[in-house]
């Protein structure tokens, strides 16, 4: 059975199908500002510009035994700036370009107060529920304080990426 690799992390949304609970060291990766240059509400493939070293980093993390999971606030959907289908199309394309295990998202606006929207931990909780996380061996890379807050609250290391080459950033923290 194929695993459903793109799914919402919000309470009440359908659980992704095809996963077996198998706790693994997990690299939680924010999307905008970590995997792609944050041009603001990127919703089309032609606007998606990979950060230097991002695809190779995902490959190396996988080879090093990490499950790679993108955790991304996507309030542009809730704000009506682009559609869920736009986001899903870009996500499916990302999966064809880089060996990302899963992408979980929250489409809500801040005033929806969804517990999945970072700094909430809902997306992380869902990953734990569905596939399992070995927290002590896991980490998040994020460019915003809210990413780091969510990771700390969930109980994994939180690493602040401020731009540059993601491969170099990870090499000084991991033996990749
Ligand atoms: Mg970001
Ligand atoms: Zn949500």
Word description of this protein:
The model has no long low-confidence stretch (mean pLDDT 97). The radius of gyration is 15 Å and the shape is globular. By secondary structure, it is an alpha/beta fold. Helix 5 links the parallel strand 5 and strand 6 (157-160). The N and C termini lie far apart (31 Å). Strands 1-4-3-2-5-6 form a 6-stranded parallel sheet. It contains 6 helices and 6 strands; from the N terminus they run ββαβααβαβαβα. 30% of the residues lie in helices and 15% in strands. Residues 30, 32-34, 38, 143-144 line the site of magnesium ion (MG).
Bound molecules: magnesium ion, zinc ion
The CATH fourth-level homologous superfamily:
HAD superfamily/HAD-like
Please report the number of helical segments: 6
Radius of gyration: 15 Å
Annotation, overall tally of beta strands: 6
- Per DSSP, what share of the residues sits in E-state strands of 2 or more residues? 15-25%
Q: Please describe the biggest sheet, giving its number of strands, its sense, and whether it closes into a barrel.
A: 6 strands, parallel
The class by helix and strand makeup works out as alpha/beta
How do the helices and strands line up, and which of them pair or pack?
Blueprint: E1 6-8, E2 26-29, H1 54-63, E3 67-73, H2 75-78, H3 84-97, E4 102-106, H4 122-130, E5 139-142, H5 145-154, E6 157-160, H6 166-171
Parallel strand pairs: 1-4, 2-3, 2-5, 3-4, 5-6
């Amino acid at each position: 059975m194929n695993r459903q690799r793109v799914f919402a992390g919000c309470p009440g949304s359908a659980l992704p199908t095809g996963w077996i609970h198998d706790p693994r060291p997990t690299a939680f990766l924010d999307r905008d500002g970590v995997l792609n240059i944050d041009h603001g509400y990127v919703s089309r493939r032609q606007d998606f510009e990979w950060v230097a070293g991002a695809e190779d980093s995902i490959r190396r993390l996988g080879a090093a035994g990490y499950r790679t999971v993108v955790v991304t606030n996507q309030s542009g959907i809730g704000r009506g700036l682009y559609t869920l289908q736009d986001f899903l199309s870009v996500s499916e394309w990302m999966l064809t370009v880089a060996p990302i295990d899963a992408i979980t998202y929250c489409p809500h606006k801040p005033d929806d107060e969804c517990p999945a929207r970072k700094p909430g931990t809902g997306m992380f909780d869902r990953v734990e529920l569905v596939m399992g996380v070995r927290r002590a061996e896991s980490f998040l890379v994020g460019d915003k304080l809210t990413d780091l807050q969510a990771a700390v609250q969930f109980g994994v290391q939180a690493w602040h990426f401020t731009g540059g080459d993601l491969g170099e950033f990870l090499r000084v923290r991991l033996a990749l």
